[in-house]
Amino acid sequence: MKTTDQLIDDLLNLAFAEDVGDGDHTTLSTIPAEATGRQHLLVKEEGIIAGIEIAKKVFEKFDSSLKITQYINDGAHVKPGDIAFVVEGPVRSLLQTERVMLNIMQRMSGIATMTARYQERLAGLKTKVLDTRKTTPGMRMLEKMAVIIGGGENHRIGLFDMILIKDNHVDFAGGIPQAVNSAKKYLAEKGKNLKIEVEVRNTEEILQALEAGVDRIMLDNFTPERTKEAVELINGRAEVESSGGITLETLRDYGECGVDFISVGALTHSVKGLDMSFKHC
Predict the structure, then answer these.
(1) What is the spatial distance between Cα 194 and Cα 213, in angstroms, rounded to a whole number?
(2) What's the average model confidence in pLDDT over 56-78?
(3) Which residues are known catalytic residues?
(4) Is the dihedral of CA 256, 257, 261, 264 positive or negative?
(5) Burial class (CB in 10 A: 0-12, 13-18, 19+), 5
């Protein structure tokens, strides 16, 4: 299995392959090879900035002679007019790295900003907002990194680092007891130590999940009223996660029920990038 660094490196290779191809012929035909210059990353919208550390990797990978002077750290609250960093070096390299860097930083900053907005709505509560697997193919590690920068928490990274028994698994396995018992047996045989979470649809399934001894119970599409009843029933015997159609407007209603986590696909699947530009200075 590839490490996070290897996955990020693969992403950057693909990003340059699809953008630069066999060369930026506009830049190569108009800018002398010996020309040097400097550009700065200008923030044009208020939010939480994320991706600066990845931007450094972009510049280093394309041209290690590029020099970066950083003024703002990932996670900082930024406003229009802020300068995140200045990059100096060959103009050809500055122009050819611009779009790859901006695509990554705008998306990561948009996700961090969205996450911070959701987590702020839960201020004073124990509840943490979680991401999901509804991420852009190839960018999952960066998008989940952005959620952390924005103050949220990651759910599982993929299918490999947690047992999440959803309704389809339950139905195909013949029920929650059968699915959980099979999962525990599988983990023992494979020598793996993974948390087990079960998605439930009603009170009967909550009781079955508790009896089976799971680590976390996901309340799928419960109303706030039903969620409060479920939290009281579970009574600390497992972690509790709310999921399914929860919006910024309804988020606190669920948090006030006492759940530990609320998973929100919108953090990554429908986010707007934070506006910024990379210009000559």
Answers:
(1) 13
(2) 98
(3) 99, 134, 166, 199, 220
(4) negative
(5) exposed
Compute the mean pLDDT over every residue in the chain, rounded to the nearest whole number. 97
In a 3-state reduction of DSSP, which class is residue 36? strand
Amino acid 237 reads: R
Instruction: For residues 35-47, give the mean pLDDT.
Output: 98
- Average pLDDT of the residues in 167-179: 97
pLDDT of 270 higher than 90? no
Query: What pLDDT does residue 235 have?
Result: 97
Quote the CA–CA distance of 9 and 3 in Å, as a whole number: 10
Angle at 69 between CA 78 and CA 110, to 5 degrees: 30
Provide the H-helix boundaries in the chain: 4-19, 25-30, 52-62, 91-121, 140-149, 167-173, 176-190, 203-212, 224-234, 251-255, 266-269
State the amino acid at position 67 in one-letter form.
K
The angle at the Cα of 127, spanning 123 to 131, to the nearest 5 degrees, equals 105
